[in-house]
Amino acid sequence: MARLLSVLVALCVLPAIVSAARPEKNPFVVQGRVYCDTCRAGFETSKTSDIAGAKVRLECRDRKTMDIVFSKEGTTDSKGLYNIFVDEEHDDQLCDAVLVSSPQKDCSIPSAGRERARLVLTRFNGIASDSRYANAMGFMKDEAEPGCTEILQQYQAYENED
């Protein structure tokens, strides 16, 4: 009887102790980059520059009501990179990294189609890593910089070769 009791304790109590000893949650880290489209091309070119101090917001919306149920802001570093830490799952929500503001007055217009990036924030999708990578997002310069015409003509030449 004592042996049966010790086996039951081992089967029931030890897993609970092991579970309690492990950290309950690993935070996700949402990583991305913000750039300035200096040629107003709508995509990155060799003249594209990174924006330090840009504000980015992570927003998660309820799939049915589309109400924002989670929001957290981050700021880019000197290389235009940001990290936003998220402590909980958002498995049945639509989450996007969204441009908020640029500290560069002459590069503060969100580039259409590059102003947000969709993210999946759940561990129930086969992704083992806690890091989630957002596509690069960009602001456009008020006016294209000198030299952009030549760069864009190079892209046009490649397109005509096909």
From TrEMBL:
Any one annotated GO CC term: extracellular space
- State a single Pfam family of this protein: Pollen_Ole_e_1
**What range does the record give for the signal peptide?**
1-20
Record-linked PROSITE patterns: OLEEI
Q: Does Nucleus count among this protein's keywords?
A: no
Q: Which domain of life is it from?
A: Eukaryota
Q: Keywords for this entry?
A: Disulfide bond, Signal
Segments passing through the bilayer? none
Q: Which family does it belong to?
A: Belongs to the Ole e I family.
Name used for this protein in its record: Pollen-specific protein C13
Q: What is the lineage of its organism?
A: Eukaryota, Viridiplantae, Streptophyta, Embryophyta, Tracheophyta
